[in-house]
Amino acid sequence: MLRRTYLFLVLVRLWFALSPSYLHPDENFQGPEVIAGQIFHYPVRHTWEFTNEHPIRSVFPLWPVYGLPMLLLRWLWIGNGNDGEIPPIAVFWTLRVLMFAISFVLEDWAIHELIPSPRHRRVAVLIVASSYVTWTFQTHTFSNSVETLVVAWCLVLIQRIVENPNRSSFLASAVLGFVAVFGVFNRITFPAFVLIPGLQLLKYYWKNPLSFVILVFAGISTTLFAIALDTAFYTPHSMTWLDLIRRPVLTPLNNFLYNIDPENLAQHGLHPWYQHLLANLPQLIGPAAVLLFTRPQCSIRLYSAISGLVVLSLSKHQEARFLLPTVPLILSSIRLPKRKSALRIWLGSWIVFNLVLGILFGVYHQGGIVPAQVFLSKQPDATQAVWWKTYMPPTWLLNGKNEVLTTRDVMGMKGEILLEELEKIATCDIPADRRSNEYLKEKNGTYLVAPLSAAWLDPYLPNKGLDGLRFREVWRYRQHLNLDDMDFGDDGVWNTLTRVIGRRGLGIWRVTKSCPK
């Protein structure tokens, strides 16, 4: 029964991995888009983290996670008789399947390794596998998802070293040195999660100095390689040894200095110190939060999660996904209720919580953005695309179309200003007798991408007159929810939910205007 349940949950995880939901722009712009531009030479957009005078994102962890699979895909693609032009959407789905695979293998394997009791291990694996965080965030290309795996395997390596003091730990120490440096260059929050578990190593390395030397050597070698890779990436010309010595790019240090400046954090939103504890953590683990405080099982996993939670709470900018590494650690450190009635209630609430949030974040959350980009990439006349009230779209999915297509993200722009901007770039309308599909033969075309819940547009969409803008709907995708379009203050709770949920979907309109003959 437990095996069948686990296999079913693995299939659920795969199903969500193959759903085009879009949880946050960072899942593209902080990883796949950067490497896709390097390997496939897609025209891409580098965000401020990479274009800043002191860049804060390292490309070192991006190459093994995304670069190697892309290189393998290109090799297989060409080896099967195709040319070197791989559709970006094929790369997108390949990375999703990859994230599913490494989550399924590495995360679940780490849970098996970290829990000695077979009975508790089976329960813990099922709880982690049934979490919507595992279904959604862990199957998306977030640096936080990678950090979750790195933290878990650092704990595994530490446990292997400590529990076998009489065995040689040379290999484990070398791997730990590499993985720890990889974790720091991936996210500077990584040390917060291994701070307490790492204290166990002090006694061991005091008695085994040679193992410590190997750990340090592996760490320093990996650090030098990572710095060289980052310096080569950010140096506008061919890097020389002099550049590496005089002007090395230290992305973790730049990231740390950026994030300790309150003025920088204010640009991304400031939160109270209890945001993670009272809001973000319950959002991630739901009913498990009750068991965390009533039936915790003390373990090094739990101490790791607590240390990470405490350190991250010191920062004034707190997003829920920053706590992803704590989720499997906490879910594997709780005990289920003993009484059958309490157990049934908890299991029922756990299933409902994860089903609701799994479908919300795994299917509907900004779910139309990726399909919309694929649609726009196939429109021969598309030269202007204005995205309103959505997340920033990943431009690398345009399949080279962005060489001629200008993408404008005007997420929070007021409606009146939006119409003024559209008036400037809208093309002239074609005669009524040629409007079936003749517009695709035009040289230029302006498209507006907006959620169907954007009721402000309603009065302007039916315009058939001679004056003003004309909107022709050419595409829509129903599995799209825009949770950033909530306006409870003006519309009220019920009206807002009716509009956002009842009118869910993303639409694309071709925008034209009347022009003098």
From TrEMBL:
Biological processes, Gene Ontology terms: GPI anchor biosynthetic process
Ligase as UniProt keyword: no
One cellular-component annotation, GO: endoplasmic reticulum membrane
Signal peptide: 1-25
Keyword field: Endoplasmic reticulum, Glycosyltransferase, GPI-anchor biosynthesis, Membrane, Signal, Transferase, Transmembrane, Transmembrane helix
Keyword Metal-binding recorded: no
Subcellular location: Endoplasmic reticulum membrane
EC number: 2.4.1.-
UniProt family annotation: Belongs to the glycosyltransferase 22 family. PIGZ subfamily.
Protein name in UniProt: Mannosyltransferase
Organism: Neurospora crassa (strain ATCC 24698 / 74-OR23-1A / CBS 708.71 / DSM 1257 / FGSC 987)
